[in-house]
Design goal:
- The N and C termini lie far apart (110 Å).
- The chain has helices at residues 3-16, 19-25, 28-69, 75-83, 90-106, 115-135, 138-170, 175-237.
- 87% of the residues lie in helices and 0% in strands.
- It is an all-alpha fold.
- The longest helix has 63 residues, at 175-237.
- The protein has one domain (26-237).
- It is a multi-pass membrane protein.
């Protein structure tokens, strides 16, 4: 005869600790914390997807450019082909150096004495711009990864304070009265970890990828600078 009330009580308890119920019954401050962490998590995943596509395309573009550059194709032909579209990565580096080279040629050799330094400076600036493009929005991942758990902990502390106030007001210290409030509070910490953990992993992975691609850019800049340096020496000797 008591089976039906027990089942109903169990169903009510289960519904009270569902994720939606935990959010809906939480204090408005805790709700704001949860919504903010949810928004941060969505933003981080959008950045993760965007950067994954960007770095994949950048690696493939570098591979194609290196294959074309070292295939023996004329530098003039490669320069004309790249100037017809917006070049990035090694292409942008090559175009910047060649543009400075051609400006010196148009001045009939009067600027060759300082050309090597100017080319290296132009390539350094181009590498800096490319690295900034690759690193854009990574600060968001670092910020969410470092501050997400603390924001969630703030929501938990506030929720526990509210739960204890409710317990003191009702004068009921049974587990059934304590559990929902504590669960609501801990849900904020869980949200903080859900937002922070992927952000930290993605930031470390992407930061390592930026370092690798920067090293490739700097390596190509050194090689291309050496090629142009030999041509400069030949023209000065002539």
């Amino acid at each position: 005869m008591n089976a039906t009330p027990e089942i109903a009580s169990t169903a009510l308890a289960a519904s009270d600790v569902s994720l939606w119920a935990l959010f809906w019954q939480a204090h408005w401050v805790v709700k704001l914390v949860m919504l903010g962490l949810l928004g941060a998590s969505i933003w981080c995943w959008a950045i993760i997807f965007d950067k994954s596509v960007l770095y994949t395309r950048s690696r493939r573009a570098m591979d194609r450019f290196e294959q074309t550059f070292w295939s023996g194709q004329s530098l003039e032909e490669l320069y004309r082909a790249l100037t017809q579209r917006e070049a990035t990565g090694m292409g942008a580096l090559f175009v910047a150096a060649m543009r400075e080279w051609k400006r010196s040629l148009e001045s009939q050799g009067r600027s060759f004495l300082g050309l090597q330094a100017r080319i290296e400076k132009v390539m350094d600036v181009t590498i800096q711009r490319e690295v900034e493009r690759l690193e854009s929005k990574l600060l968001v991942l670092a910020t969410v990864g470092s501050s997400g758990p603390f924001i969630g902990l703030f929501g938990t502390v506030w929720g526990i304070m509210t739960a204890f106030q409710s317990i003191a007001a009702s004068k009921n210290t049974s587990l059934a009265a304590v559990a929902p409030g504590i669960s609501e509070a801990l849900f904020a910490t869980a949200m903080g970890l859900v937002a922070a953990i992927p952000a930290v992993i993605a930031y470390n992975k992407f930061n390592a990828e930026v370092v690798k691609q920067q090293a490739r850019l700097e390596g190509f800049a050194d090689e291309f600078s050496a090629i142009l340096s030999r041509q400069i020496d030949e023209r000065l000797a002539a």
